[in-house]
Structures are given as C-alpha cells and as structure tokens.
Design brief:
Layout (H helix, E strand, L loop, with lengths): L2 H13 L5 H27 L4 H23 L1 H8 L12 H7 L4
Length: 106
C-alpha cells in the first residue's frame, strides 16, 4: 500500500464520510511531495551514498515538515485525531543511530 492509499484509509477510519474534500486534496498534495522527496533519499541510502544515520535524520526532518504543513491545513485538534499526537512533535520514522549500523556509507 502506497503512502496515498494509506492516508486515505487512515482518514476514512478516523473521520468517516465527514472529511472535507478540499483539505484531503491539500493533504494528498503534501504527501505526494513528501514521497517525491523521499525516493531519492531512499536510493541514496540503498546505494551507500549516504549512511542510515543521515538518511533517517533527513527523512525524519522532511516528514516533520510535511506534518507541520498538514497541521496548518486541518488545525491542531483534527491533526491530533489523525496522527495521535499534537502538531510540532518531531517525527521519528526510524532511529538514525540504529540505521547507521544497518546502512553504512560505502
């Protein structure tokens, strides 16, 4: 399941049919941009151009930016229902220290 399909499923489960289509469109755009930014980072770590620490540091920072943008679109209360935490909490999609051992720079 891709990022967009996952997002649609989460929104539907949390909001049912009461979601705002314009806001969903904006969220989809934010997540598409995140996914576009993520792909080259992923390729860099898999090729050894960057190590796992740099990859997850950059990925976590970029995802935090995307979440900040989404919070501006939906507001703090809706954001917390959607993500389970208030806006402004740094994303931790992966631990840079653990990833550094798994993906060394070559």
């Amino acid at each position: 399941m891709g990022i967009e399909e996952n997002m649609k499923e989460v929104v539907k489960k949390r909001f049912g049919d009461s979601s705002d289509n314009e806001k969903l469109k904006q969220i989809r755009g934010i997540m598409r941009t995140f996914e576009k930014d993520w792909r080259p980072m992923r390729q860099d770590v898999l090729s050894g151009k960057i190590d796992g620490r740099e990859y997850f540091s950059r990925l976590n920072a970029r995802y935090s930016e995307a979440q900040d943008q989404i919070a501006k679109v939906v507001g703090a209360e809706v954001f917390e229902r959607l993500y389970g935490h208030p806006p402004g909490v740094p994303a931790q999609l992966g631990d840079p220290d653990i990833a550094a051992r798994a993906y060394p720079k070559r």
